[in-house]
Amino acid sequence: MLPVNPDRFLADLHRLREFGAAGVGRGVVRPAFTDPDIAARRWLREQFAACGLEARIDPVGTVWGLAEGQSLLVGSHTDTQPEGGWLDGTLGVICGLELARAGAEAGIPISAVSFEDEEGRFGVTTGSRVWGGFTSLAAADRLTDTQGVTYAEARARIADIAGEFPDPGRFRGFLECHIEQGPWLDQAGEAAGVVTGIVGIRDMRVTFTGEQNHAGTTPMHLRRDALKGLLRFQHLIADRFRNVVVGETVWTTGHVELHPGSHSIVPGRCTFSMQWRDGDKQRLDRMEEIIRQAIEDAAADTGLTAETSDMLGLDPVPMDEGMQQALARAAQAVAPGRWRRMPSGALHDAASVAALMPAAMLFVPSINGISHAFEEDTDEADLVTGLQILAHAAAEMAAR
Amino acid sequence: MLPVNPDRFLADLHRLREFGAAGVGRGVVRPAFTDPDIAARRWLREQFAACGLEARIDPVGTVWGLAEGQSLLVGSHTDTQPEGGWLDGTLGVICGLELARAGAEAGIPISAVSFEDEEGRFGVTTGSRVWGGFTSLAAADRLTDTQGVTYAEARARIADIAGEFPDPGRFRGFLECHIEQGPWLDQAGEAAGVVTGIVGIRDMRVTFTGEQNHAGTTPMHLRRDALKGLLRFQHLIADRFRNVVVGETVWTTGHVELHPGSHSIVPGRCTFSMQWRDGDKQRLDRMEEIIRQAIEDAAADTGLTAETSDMLGLDPVPMDEGMQQALARAAQAVAPGRWRRMPSGALHDAASVAALMPAAMLFVPSINGISHAFEEDTDEADLVTGLQILAHAAAEMAAR
């Protein structure tokens, strides 16, 4: 086990929280490329340098602490949601800092990283996706935030401190620690989750079209009420998903819009979002078949027409089997019987980095499963347990 | 039968359409107190004066053509929806003009009227509700349109031509002709509908509240997804209404809003409109019981909490029985076997005027049931048949 220092680690977590500290509890407001985010990245660069790493900020704002030669890369991100918690992303970065520091003391090369814009001011996991080769810098530069600011304009703010991208070939693997953001570990009283993979996401908009009409004078049997399409569709998928989904499968309709949206008008158009996630690509496919058939059947049953938008599709990303095994052995050593294997329902930088090298993730519990909110928190004992599992696993990975 | 002149009547209908003529087909844009509306009212006042009536515009913009002594009042409104048809309201007003003109020729006292703001730029049937005593002028003056213009500011535009309100006591009854705005007469190939009553409306907003959460990390069995409340509620009322409603009963959810309304967030709140209409107050009550019970049951079934807004309630307004019988005899004389008795699913000025005097309505067919749209239309032969039925009935009413 690397000689990590829990007190130093917790002190750094609290120190980083001060950049953008806000709201009730331990809330933080530190979106990508804002003043608090850039200040936090300058501070982090100093910490990396102070423990003997080559400290560097790359063209998209990702902060690197590079060990010499081949090293294990450990980290996550320090940007937050517009109203975020103190641990989301930050925990993984400070784990990286502490492991790199302990590695330097023990003569084991560990590099650390804080990717930029994981939270998606401009895209989703933008910094790691550019580095991972999913998005060219030229294409990323055309992205805009909700205020119309371009990615090019935002990253120009750090141009004076930006160096080169590091070569991915110098890293032998990537290890990311993150809060679970869900309730499973907290409810079970467990300390850690070894992530088996990052689930795939499919997401589309569905539109049913009928006939807009007067809500007083149009008899029920002559209506082509577009809301009926949504109701019928939801009924059909609830029924047809039964024998297909597993406990970890999720599906969500988070947005609904009726047109024209008046109390006194039979809606002529209903548009809604349909998103589903699962770790198994075949299951995502099977759900897609059911969804498309249900849209067609719901339209036929209700006398409406239906269309779907282009579909966003991110495939599931399995975590490296060897690294999972090392994490599992470490978890069993540090917290015997108090850990599990589990998929990640949320997207993380590890999904980008896995395209370049073996990657793995460790989850720690989220109190009440809360995240992306000021109330987000984790017991400090669980934070330290997570650090110790990583320290065990990193030592084993480095020894191979 | 009063000696009405169909050619003169049709010519006036087309003439009035020129004020605000717009869009495809025979569309009109003439909302209350806009320039075209005021110009149309000035023109109408001249027509009333030209046939020997006392022509007057009252403080809220309603145009009156007053016969001497006790008279039958005939009319409707000439303001339109922001995008309206050429007949909605206008037909009843030009019927009033032609009947008053024919009455003057035959020595039978008929007064005519065009109420202002029936279409609800500021309220609903605002002009007739002020005259009917439902709303004080002071209260109406505080109403605003969607742009923030007050009723007081709008009616100040006609202050230079405004006289007094006429005394309701001078009218022996009110007769309103209107397009059906629904499909029943058109589909049956019938020429007229004798309106039995104007249906009551109840309207509320329902809100289900659950727990906003991450759409990737929150397992299905732990979600309190507010959309489920809407789905369950709609399922319950569809089932429970079966043995309560009749063919004319209608109910509508025309507006739905999920909060925060994002593809990736389990919605914590779902607000939607629920409106129902029927001519029978007891049925409206029974439906309300079912709706309130279904809201409670849906919340219990889905683990949500529910609340309802204040309810808008307009009771059904039965039309005068004697006037209905006179209209029925006239319809049978003019269009034997090609008419029916039917309720009005839409609100009309007659509902306000019925508080002051006996009131009755006649419907003519709407092609394909379309209204509140530029495509709204009625066959001219049906317009003339409607006028002739009114001319028959008005002669009988005046002879009593």
From TrEMBL, chains A, B:
Zn(2+) 1 binds at residues 77, 88, 178. Keywords: Hydrolase, Manganese, Metal-binding, Zinc. PANTHER family: ALLANTOATE DEIMINASE-RELATED. GO terms for molecular function: hydrolase activity, acting on carbon-nitrogen (but not peptide) bonds, in linear amidines; metal ion binding. Homodimer. Residues 197-301 form the Peptidase M20 dimerisation domain. It holds the Pfam family Peptidase_M20. Its cofactor is Mn(2+); Zn(2+). Binds 2 Zn(2+) ions per subunit. Belongs to the peptidase M20 family. This is N-carbamoyl-L-amino acid amidohydrolase. SUPFAM superfamilies: Bacterial exopeptidase dimerisation domain (SSF55031), Zn-dependent exopeptidases (SSF53187). The keyword Signal does not apply. The keyword Zinc applies. Zn(2+) 2 binds at residues 88, 119, 372.
